[in-house]
Write a structure and sequence with these properties.
By secondary structure, the chain is an alpha/beta fold. The protein is built from 19 helices and 18 strands. It has three domains: 4-46 and 463-574, OB fold (Dihydrolipoamide Acetyltransferase, E2P) (Beta Barrel), CATH 2.40.50.460; 51-213, inorganic pyrophosphatase (n-terminal core) (Alpha-Beta Complex), CATH 3.90.1640.30; 355-459, Diaminopimelate Epimerase, Chain A, domain 1.
Length: 576
């Protein structure tokens, strides 16, 4: 069944006339994003660091910073407690690096292990931190749901400060909290990731201790924020757009030795410019891989070292190379595991004659750090909800779910709460723990919900096309303005264009395994390169000379010092 193509409604002609300094396709993109007056357009195309909000607008930020400064002056023992994903690692590293910069050394950093205790400030971790002689625990990217753990910490004589960005529960931990979602917080922008919150904290701390390099510090950590914001799939609007825009600029000249090493190992160290694509598909997956892949010591024990954090913290070139290579190896292992599980599920789906309304598979051997990635790939492939799980030592199954419009995971899982030991997340992404004996019954219930909520026509992907693009539209002026739309990501997606009735001039398989397809297409006397990834078999019906309609996104690629404009294929239909 072919995908459904849906072209967005054209902007009013009056809008094109009023803003005739911009090319028409550019104006259509601006209209689609709700940018309809000159001021809004200029703010979007020309963001400024001067437009960032003051950290002191966050509830408790100033008070929290003063408490940390008091601890620094009294040389209190502190613990930075983060998370094992990219956002948690980057936010922990920002705070740790600031402490080092001001000469404060009486602290330690705790990054939890997904395979030993899991996410958040657990009871066991509180006890471990207490044995380290800690007076003050500072959580970043976690803590907002850890009321019992905070209570224990206080009973052991420790104070806890929480710097988080997640939605708070009904009952908050009884301690000082900085989280823009908590009641009473009037911070104007609610979608900062934890790394940006840590950055705001560092800005406030620098002011409190009168750090002499506040200006350079304001830019130094922007690359961390860009990486974390894109990795956490936060909306790239307003303040996030500013932070990521300048963070990508900072990445070109990063002073972080570990990041430089990782860029080199990943093969993108010589890029003239970095985009959201480089972070989302090259950098972040590698940093995340360490927390997703279980690694053990020679004695067979689960290893505690978080190589991604060590990479960002090191000041030694040789160490940076070692950590970067280890991380790259973990990422390859992650890719291998994802591919094996994905292929296994795909084969099972093939054997049963196609997917059910809800994809539901598990295996005790599958890694719980991988199942979420697999669920996402299956959801994208079949355009329906996917629940993929592994098994814990306690006999329960732990998994991740990814969903599509019309099947709200939070609502559906709430109806199925009797099957879950624990579940939670968002409408399109969630995690769950389920008793082994409830698996089959839960599967049946979810399938019934799928039959109820998902109609067959709703399982056909809709390709949202932003604008029609003709060859003559692609001018230097168009391209210069189009670049200003970066960074692309959530809430500012890569624009999808349609070019109708083009002729395939040449085509050939490319890539190490020959599984990508490269085409040259011609229309109105102009030729363009088209690249389609992992599609040689799928597009085997195409041939040179064929006339087609193309749906694509624009990519600027660098190769051997030269810059090329490519069309990255989204969909294609033969004209009959």
């Amino acid at each position: 069944m072919e995908n459904i193509w849906k072209i967005k409604a054209q902007a009013p002609e009056e809008f094109f006339i009023q803003n005739k300094d911009y090319p028409r396709p550019i104006l259509q993109l601006l209209w689609n994003r709700g940018l309809k007056d000159k001021e809004a357009i200029e703010e979007f195309l020309q963001p400024s660091l001067a437009d960032l909000f003051s950290p002191n607008l966050m509830l408790n930020m100033e008070q929290g910073a003063k408490r940390i400064v008091q601890g620094i002056k009294n040389n209190e023992r502190m613990a930075i407690f983060g998370d094992y994903d990219t956002d948690g690692i980057c936010s922990s590293a920002i705070l740790a690096k600031f402490f080092q910069r001001i000469g404060f050394e009486n602290f330690d950093v705790f990054i939890p292990n997904r395979f030993k205790g899991g996410y958040g400030l657990t009871i066991e971790k509180v006890k471990e931190i207490n044995q380290d002689g800690v007076n003050l625990i500072i959580t970043v990217d976690c803590g907002i749901t850890d009321a019992e753990e905070v209570k224990l910490a206080k009973s052991l004589g420790m104070e806890v400060l929480i710097f988080d960005h997640h939605l708070p529960p009904a009952i908050l931990p009884d301690t000082l909290i900085v989280d823009v979602h908590q009641p009473g917080d009037s911070y104007p922008f609610k979608y900062l990731v934890a790394t940006a919150v840590a950055y705001k904290l560092v800005q406030t701390l620098a002011q409190e201790v009168n750090f002499p390099f506040k200006e350079s510090l304001a830019k130094e950590f922007l690359d961390f924020i860009a990486i974390a914001t894109i990795a956490d799939v936060a909306p790239l609007l307003e303040e996030n757009r500013i932070l990521v825009k300048f963070g990508l600029e900072q990445l070109k000249r990063t002073s972080n030795i570990g990041l430089k090493a990782l860029l080199d190992v990943a093969g993108i160290g010589d890029q003239k410019n970095y985009t959201s694509y480089h972070i989302g598909f090259v950098i972040a997956p590698r940093l995340n891989a360490v927390g997703r892949v279980e690694h053990t010591t020679p004695a067979g024990r689960i290893e505690d070292t978080d190589y991604s954090f060590e990479l960002l913290m090191t000041e030694n070139d040789n160490e940076a190379q070692v950590w970067a290579k280890k991380i790259d190896a973990f990422n390859k292992d992650r890719q291998r595991q994802v591919e094996e599980i994905y292929n296994s599920v795909s084969e099972s789906i093939r054997q049963q004659g196609g997917p059910e309304k809800v994809i539901f598979f598990g295996d005790p051997k599958w890694s719980k750090g991988i199942v979420g990635v697999v669920a996402g790939k299956l959801k994208d492939k079949w355009h329906r909800p996917a629940f993929i799980y592994s098994q814990t030592e306690e006999g329960t199954s732990l998994g991740s779910a990814r969903s599509v419009a019309g099947f709200n995971l939070v609502e559906v899982m709430a109806k199925a709460s009797q099957f879950f030991v624990e579940c939670g997340g968002h409408s399109e992404a969630a995690g769950f723990t389920i008793k082994k004996e409830s698996l089959e019954e839960c599967h049946q219930f979810l399938e019934e919900q799928g039959e109820l909520l998902l109609k067959d026509e709703g399982l056909v992907p809709v390709v949202e096309i932003e604008s029609i693009l003709e060859p003559e539209d692609i001018t230097d002026k168009f391209w210069d303005t189009f670049r200003q739309f970066e960074p692309f990501g959530k809430s500012n997606p890569d624009p999808v264009f349609l070019m109708s009735d083009v002729r395939i001039d040449k085509m050939r398989p490319v890539g190490k395994n020959g599984n990508h397809l490269k085409m040259a297409i011609v229309k109105n006397g102009r030729s363009f390169n088209v690249i389609s990834f992992n599609s040689v078999e799928k597009l085997s019906h195409l041939s040179e000379g064929m006339r087609v309609d193309l749906v694509f996104i624009l990519r600027e690629n660098e190769w051997q010092g030269r810059t090329y404009l490519d069309f990255e294929l989204v969909d294609i239909k033969e004209i009959r």
